[in-house]
Amino acid sequence: MFQAIGRAQTDAIVLSISVAHWAIPTALSSAVGLTPFGRLHIVLQIGFSVRPFTNNGSGVEHMRLILLMIVFISIAGPVAGQEFAIEGTKGTKLTAARIADFDRPWAMTFLPDGTLLVTEKKGVLLHVTKDGSKTEVQGLWRVAYGGQGGLGDVVLHPDFNSNLWVYISYAERSNRSGTIGAVVVRAKLDMKNSPPRLSSVEKLWVQEPKVTGRGHYSHRIAFGPGGKMFITSGDRQKLKPAQNFSGHLGKVLRLNADGTVPNDNPWQDRGEIAKQFWTVGHRNMLGIDFDSDGRMWVHEMGPRHGDELNVIIAGTNYGWPIVSNGDHYSGIPIPDHDTRPEFEAPRAYWVPSIAPSGLVIYDGDIFPEWKGNAMIGGLISKALIHVDLEGDTAKEAERFKWGERIREVEQGPDGALYVLEDGSGGRLLKLTPGR
Ligand SMILES: [Ca+2]
Ligand SMILES: [Ca+2]
């Protein structure tokens, strides 16, 4: 029927349809807080849907023009300050404010002045101000970027104010064999000059053995109430080594802040490496934090389902890969935890999987209901998960979903909750109580 319409009319129709379709999704995407990519994606789809209205070629020209306009508007749009509402599965309302965007962010930590350090997997450390301005920290080194590996965690020494020590984990490739393993270093963070710079880098821990593959490094770091450093060391997808005492794979480790080994760790007579172990029998642990009683909580990705939230007790075996409330990806069953009571069972577990990443035990004031509870990021579940902790028991309380994978969770000095979305364009969001 459009063959009957003259070229001018077609152009007018295409343009008006395009403008209408451009305005609606732009307003819509602003309202729901989509990333520029999300906005572009919606408009691209609408752009293509315009195509059937033209069969004389002029529509293609218009589409180009429209897409150019949209690319321009997306790039020019403000990054910080956009807000959107989130409602939990039990009706709790949050307001999310977008602070900044990142390229595959992995971890963050707050500095005493309320600004942030954020790692990007490819090997970039950023200093981020409260208004979302980013400056690349200088003095970083090459990391083995790929798969789940790259630049990992960043945390501060408990006395950072006086010693300026920053602790960083990353994946390192061996020169000779090409195998890879996690590493933890510390460095002084010089904030007096601009841009900020790392200096006095000291390698404190090297995951042994380095192996093939690019998964399950874990390499989360946390300082305990007594000033000791805990490192989660994943099984590197090799499974059985989680039960042996000759390597770091599948363990939680406890070291002094300078990387030396405390002489009161639980396994003193199982060889040199085992003197670093705090607990054994783990898989992939991307979240670690302490509650106000000093109890250590670590979550762990299960295989096919069976993700765990564990209380970490020195000298204990958590059973991977002998037991799991999940099963192998192949479908081959793994006996559940209740069949082998000698292995420590999780305080909470998830079937189906949530793919936990990032953990903070909240102790701020602006969410009084959450005090003492765990907030866990979810990758596959695309959710922020509120887990109620009572003593050493845990139970999921509520989920918050807005369609994005959550990589990292922190509590700000202001008591707000901060999350990093996963992947390219992952946003830093500040969460406060909604209305
Ligand atoms: Ca963190
Ligand atoms: Ca099982």
SSE blueprint and pairings:
Elements: H1 7-32, H2 36-50, H3 58-76, E1 83-87, E2 93-103, E3 105-110, E4 116-120, E5 124-128, E6 134-136, E7 151-156, H4 160-163, E8 165-173, E9 180-190, E10 197-206, E11 218-223, E12 229-233, E13 251-255, E14 277-280, E15 284-290, E16 296-301, E17 307-312, E18 316-317, E19 348-350, E20 356-361, E21 374-378, E22 383-390, E23 393-400, E24 406-411, E25 417-421, E26 424-433
Parallel strand pairs: 14-18
Antiparallel strand pairs: 1-2, 2-26, 3-4, 4-5, 5-6, 7-8, 8-9, 9-10, 11-12, 12-13, 13-14, 15-16, 16-17, 17-19, 20-21, 21-22, 22-23, 24-25, 25-26
The protein binds calcium ion (2 copies).
Description:
The longest helix has 26 residues, at 7-32. The protein folds into two domains: 2-75, no CATH class; 83-433, 6 Propeller (Neuraminidase). It is 15% helix and 37% strand. With 435 residues, it is mainly β. Strand 8 and strand 9 form a beta hairpin. It contains four helices and 26 strands. It has helices at residues 7-32, 36-50, 58-76, 160-163; strands at 83-87, 93-103, 105-110, 116-120, 124-128, 134-136, 151-156, 165-173, 180-190, 197-206, 218-223, 229-233, 251-255, 277-280, 284-290, 296-301, 307-312, 316-317, 348-350, 356-361, 374-378, 383-390, 393-400, 406-411, 417-421, 424-433. The chain is globular. Strands 1-2-26-25-24 form a five-stranded antiparallel β-sheet, with no helix packed on it. A five-stranded mixed β-sheet has the order 11-12-13-14-18, with no helix packed on it. A four-stranded antiparallel β-sheet has the order 3-4-5-6, with no helix packed on it. One calcium ion is lined by residues 107-109, 408, 410.
